[in-house]
Design brief:
Two copies of one chain form a homodimer. Chain A is mainly β and 129 residues long. Chain A has two helices and eight strands; from the N terminus they run E-E-H-E-E-E-E-E-E-H. At the A-B interface, strand 1, strand 2, strand 5 and strand 7 of A face strand 1, strand 2, strand 5 and strand 7 of B.
């Protein structure tokens, strides 16, 4: 049996993929895959996703060069979430942070702070628009 | 501004929460919160979720005793995913594994293997049904 038969995609044919940096354990981002982008991820060893807002297939880093090399693909007990270990080139976040989760809630439960440095600006990554 | 104003809930009023064990960096599970369960999580310091299948509010560990004590709540650049650092009591997975992501895909891209020991059986956790 292929692990693909264990997976449950949403009614839109999607499954969320948590991306974790293998070397540090840092959770970098979460994005959605369809079956085709998951299969492409397995075959190429680079993460591919499905953009719900743009309704397009994309390889992480195709514009920025910040690709993700896959080291492990795990799936959860319910088969409805993936956890993918990668080696990340540069910043994972399109805002130039290593991780998209660069803001944490303060002890008051309302305000928040940045928890990591911005490595690059979006203009440096993508050029001026 | 409250961080809650930065969040984007789905049309069903939900947001996915990735739960990570702070001490080890292990990603334990992903589950869905609504605004009320997130606020309850902040106030109590224990993770609360919304069950899409049962359409109920639940505290992690309310039956099993395997509660999660919150140490940090982060949110991503798009405001549509949470990353919550916890200290986990016992197994996070209802199948008795520390993490719900206890299976990984093999190099052939199809077959899979267990990557961690089962700490308890579901019968030991929840009693015979």
């Amino acid at each position: 049996m292929s692990f693909l038969d264990k997976l449950k995609f949403t009614s839109d044919g999607l499954i969320p993929a948590i991306i974790q940096e293998r070397s540090t354990g840092r959770v970098l981002m979460m994005a959605w895959m369809n079956r085709a982008s998951l299969e492409k991820t397995i075959v190429t060893g680079k993460t591919h996703f499905w953009s719900r807002s743009r309704q397009t297939f994309w390889m992480k880093g195709e514009t920025s060069g910040h690709t993700q090399t896959v080291r492990d693909i795990a799936f959860d007990c319910d088969g409805d979430t993936l956890l993918i270990q990668v080696e990340q080139t540069g910043a994972a976040c399109h805002e130039g942070y290593k991780s998209c989760f660069f803001r944490s809630v303060e002890a008051d439960g309302r305000s928040f702070r940045n928890t990591e440095p911005q490595l690059e600006t979006p203009e440096e990554i993508y050029g001026k628009k």
